[in-house]
Amino acid sequence: AEPEPHVVVLFGATGDLARRKLLPGLLHLQAAGLLPPCRVVGTALEDLGDDGFRALAQAACERFGRPEVPLEARQAFLGCLRYVPTGAGPEALAAAVGRAREELPGWPRLLHYLSIPPQAMAAVVDLLARAKLVERARIVMEKPFGTDLASARALNEVVHRVFEESQVFRIDHFLGKEAALNILAFRFANGLFEPIWNRHHIDHVQIDVPETLTVDERAGFYDRTGAFRDMVVTHLFQILAFVAMEPPVAFDPPSIDQERTKVFRSLRPIDPKQVVRGQYEGYRAIAGVDVDSQTETFVALRCEVDNWRWAGVPFFLRTGKAMAEGARIISIAFREPPKSMFPAGSGIGERGPDHLTFDLDDDARLSLSFYGKRPGRGMALDKLSLQFALHETGYQRDVLEAYERLVLEAMVGDRTLFASAEGIERLWELSAPLLEQPPPLEPYPVGSWGPSSIGRLVAPRTWRLPFER
Ligand code: BG6
């Protein structure tokens, strides 16, 4: 379906996410001819006018947007932007949206994008109700959705008082990454892999998302959130569901959501003893961070999907800020052969089991590593690999950034790649033991792979990252 004309009402329009992703993403979509006729009404706490907001958007698009977007397209986009301070109240918001609507053909739909912290969501939902901006509207809610089970339930209730569930789009941008969708294509469009996609052939799975970023520019949000809520409850668990789920009956929202939710129901509650929480050295000195902050900037954990396919196969998850390298990989480690006929010293097993690795970068790389013969005399073995890289194909220019894809999906009302109320509540429920009794924080140096105890978490296995060079 083609999206109808839209007024996008962007809450948190001056925030980090809006500047880094949403404004540059909307610009790119418009320049690529993928957006319907649109106006964007930005709103935030700052007291800006249209021009002030345009200046901010222009700077954001220059800094974070795609350099190839031509000047005319940039100017046309800025011309579509309007601003109203959130504090101006429901009438002012309704009036600004009304004016923007009149500039467009027909009766435009509304897309309310709530790029704001979980604590601020309920007030905005209430504001939308008072401004009577509910009809023909959809609402996109940024993660984290709540901060625990009780707050997620309360938020779902608040939202459902105003919006139908079919109008609600809980966004998790990892679900919109090309490479994440490629997991589904890879698993369910080929006959080769699904037969070995289970406990009989897979030893363990790692979902590893180290980041080199620090949190200086969003310390206030981050210090109230932490790595577990910011990354695991949302992104990593959703990716885990794509790796672990059963084949859906169809590629449609109810079927996919049902299988994802089944994975979440099979996940065992997180055992705090199987979790390492870290904080990078110097974090507490950042402006906006509490001087004795107990917030983790790193988390690694072991979890188990307790069903017939996966019983006994550990899933190791890791993510953190200020780490040595940035990466986003999913690595499937296959079991080693039951018996080796190759002599000791041949090299077999020395470099770990064979792996299938998905790289969630926009470049969507995929590699299969295996043992093969090293050329020359004798029978020495070496780790070889088969690789696929999107940028080496003709597809690269069609790649949509995750937020871009998801905004378009929300505009046509397709909820396949969005999280459901039930799924999210279940994730908070199984996170409760950890949230209630978090293990002590361990410091780690900036530029490292996390606290030293992470080795113990996976032993006798090892972390797949850093890759050997
Ligand atoms: C966001 C988190 O949701 O995802 C950030 O709030 C994190 O802390 C980001 O850096 C990572 O996203 P991506 O697409 O850059 O991997």
TrEMBL record:
Which UniProt keyword terms apply here?
Carbohydrate metabolism, Glucose metabolism, NADP, Oxidoreductase
Which GO-annotated molecular functions does the record name? Answer: glucose-6-phosphate dehydrogenase activity
Q: Supply the InterPro entries for this chain.
A: G6P_DH, G6P_DH_AS, G6P_DH_C, G6P_DH_NAD-bd, NAD(P)-bd_dom_sf
Read off the Gene3D superfamilies from this record.
Answer: Dihydrodipicolinate Reductase, domain 2, NAD(P)-binding Rossmann-like Domain
Give every Glucose-6-phosphate dehydrogenase C-terminal domain span.
184-461
Pathway membership: Carbohydrate degradation; pentose phosphate pathway; D-ribulose 5-phosphate from D-glucose 6-phosphate (oxidative stage): step 1/3
Does this UniProt record's set of keywords contain Oxidoreductase? Answer: yes
Q: What class of enzyme is it?
A: oxidoreductase
Supply the EC number(s): 1.1.1.49
Q: What does this protein do?
A: Catalyzes the oxidation of glucose 6-phosphate to 6-phosphogluconolactone.
Q: Give the family, as the similarity comment puts it.
A: Belongs to the glucose-6-phosphate dehydrogenase family.
Tell me what this protein is called.
Glucose-6-phosphate 1-dehydrogenase
Which lineage do the record's taxonomy fields give for this organism? Answer: Bacteria, Bacillati, Actinomycetota, Acidimicrobiia, Acidimicrobiales
Which gene carries the instructions for this protein? zwf
